[in-house]
Amino acid sequence: MGNVPSAVKHCLSYQQLLREHLWIGDSVAGALDPAQETSQLSGLPEYVKIVEVGPRDGLQNEKVIVPTDIKIEFINQLSQTGLSVIEVTSFVSSRWVPQMADHSEVMKGIHQYPGVRYPVLTPNLQGFHRAVAAGATEISVFGAASESFSKKNINCSIEESMQKFEEVVKSARHMNIPVRGYVSCALGCPYEGTITPQKVTEVSKRLYGMGCYEISLGDTIGVGTPGSMKRMLESVMKEIPPSALAVHCHDTYGQALANILTALQMGINVVDSAVSGLGGCPYAKGASGNVATEDLIYMLNGLGLNTGVNLYKVMEAGDFICKAVNKTTNSKVAQASFST
Amino acid sequence: MPSLLSGSILEETSQLSGLPEYVKIVEVGPRDGLQNEKVIVPTDIKIEFINQLSQTGLSVIEVTSFVSSRWVPQMADHSEVMKGIHQYPGVRYPVLTPNLQGFHRAVAAGATEISVFGAASESFSKKNINCSIEESMQKFEEVVKSARHMNIPVRGYVSCALGCPYEGTITPQKVTEVSKRLYGMGCYEISLGDTIGVGTPGSMKRMLESVMKEIPPSALAVHCHDTYGQALANILTALQMGINVVDSAVSGLGGCPYAKGASGNVATEDLIYMLNGLGLNTGVNLYKVMEAGDFICKAVNKTTNSKVAQASFST
After folding, report:
1. CB-based contact A39 B209, cutoff 8 Å
2. Distance of CA B310 to the CA centre of its chain
3. Cβ-defined contact of A2 to B159 (cutoff 8 Å)
4. Is 70 exceeded by the pLDDT of residue A4?
5. Of chain B's two ends, which shows fewer C-beta atoms within 10 Å, N or C?
6. Inter-chain CB proximity A253 and B71 less than 8 Å
């Protein structure tokens, strides 16, 4: 930029910019008329489903223990933003994840809005039964593409974890409860470093084969780039249709949106994110974790992709939870919007 | 996790389609970055900073701006910095020159490459450089004429290419018109700037499609701000369309004067990380850039805006 006079107060506020000019869907000045759809980035899906993992993956990695009533209020706010999937909590032992100790209370306490789904994590059969008792109607199981990560994170080998999940999935399917499968370390492992696309494919195929309706491929430590994302997806998509895949990108190295864009260009249309980019990275102290839902929505809006989610309402929920965990938001959109 | 940072050997068959093999990074930290930092950095620190950057493999480092110190106090020491830096062979050191007076001062101080700064928005032009787009173009014509006379290459910037803080939406046609004007008068490269970072891959594509009808991609660069976190996705889009020159600032120096507390330039470290991961050659050593970033962040007393640096220095 050249000279910068003190004319800030004469600018359009960023809220105004977002609202009137640059939030696709409220197009102005013909910049985004239907005639320009021909210039839509090639191969992008029309609709993208956002899976909001803030209350689970986000809060799980926050130091401040959030009271149960705040969690419930947070999820209730998210339920009114247009998000169609909100991951509520995790039925793990409170010894491992103290933040999720109130899983049953949260599950029972939230208002389940029509049209919104509320999956919960269930690492084993015991957790599954508790989840169902608390009113869960959708669950997730969490595998890894790295043996070391599996052992350190859930205390068993990949094979042992798959056997546990088979039990859970069997019971779930018996009760018509859909199961989502996560594969962590899909683009790299904090212990092993590089993870081959073949390994990711093998684990994904296993989860898909046992009955998971969707496989979320997680860049757990955010080391992936568009190059490694493409190679991994090319491998996985030989075995699993793109409609059954999702990406879960962490923004630890600032690569998340570029990686997500790459996945979208390859036909993936389900993306996990966390409001305010909640949750740091347990493997790099002070570094960021989840990609921020606000920043994701901003990009998807700009691409003309339909999400059904109201960016402002998400920012409000983000503001609420950031105050509750006493931290500044990790969302750049929120930072820019609330600062003028 | 050094092995992951250095970028593994990549199978070229799975290279993302249409990407260039080599990407030139134009480092604007010392100028665009520092210009937007509140803390006035002493001259000797600026010189040391630029000298460190010169040893990272970067081939273009924008040193300073020959503007009046009344407007941009941070750049008041432009001549001293220009004279004080060590000009390494193989590295180019362009400077901003808003008018003929600035141009002559720059040449007197040893500059061998200059840049002029236009805008695709009338309002931004008037508020930023106190004249209309047309008036600014006339000034630049004078500068470019003199520069070409002396065989000094000129780079042209077009700010507000994806949106303006005063006008909001900017049409791709307007960006093309201004870019064409600068290119036509003799600028060898046009850097298209998302000044307030509001662009997304969608608007980037539409704008580039328009500009590329008039200017070859080899003469274009993108200058993305990360105010809304969109910079790397926008840069990836530009690369996919054949652009292979990208501006960035080490540590993501420089905030946004239009959104207090928001970020500005995309961080060179994060850009290199992505380019390395894509198997694209930049010639730049990421670690050395991180060291220079660490140095300047301490000097301006702020934490880095680079996520790669945050993740790397924290374990």
Report:
1. yes
2. 22
3. yes
4. no
5. C
6. no
Which residue of chain B comes nearest to A224, CA vs CA? B277
Q: Which amino acid is at B49?
A: F
Gap from A9 CA to chain B (nearest CA, Å):
9
Q: What is the secondary structure of A92-150 as a DSSP string?
A: S-TTT-GGGTTHHHHHHHS---TT-B--EE--SHHHHHHHHHTT---EEEEEES-HHHH
Closest Cα in chain B to A286: B314
Taking contacts as CB-CB distances below 8 angstroms, the residues of chain B near A148 are none
Amino acid code (one letter) for B92: R
Residues 6+ apart with CB under 8 A from A103: A89, A90, A91, A92, A120, A130, A131, A134
B17 — pLDDT class (breaks 50, 70, 90): low
Q: Does the beta-carbon distance from B205 to A41 stay under 8 Å?
A: yes
* Per-residue pLDDT tens over the stretch A250-266: 999 999 999 999 999 99
Q: Which ipTM score applies to this complex?
A: 0.90
Longest pairwise C-alpha distance within chain A? 67
How distant is the Cα of B201 from the closest Cα of chain A, in angstroms? Answer: 6
Residue B69, pLDDT score: 87
Nearest to B52 by CA among B300, B249, B293: B293
How close, in Å, is residue B306 to chain A by CA atoms?
Answer: 8
**What value does the CA radius of gyration of chain A take, rounded to a whole number of Å?**
20
Give the three-state DSSP class for B259. Answer: coil
**Residue in B261, B194, B253 with CA at minimum distance from that of residue B46:** B253
Please compute the mean of the pLDDT values over residues A20-45 and round it to a whole number.
46
What percentage of chain B carries pLDDT values higher than 90?
83
* Whether the predicted pLDDT of A288 surpasses 90: no
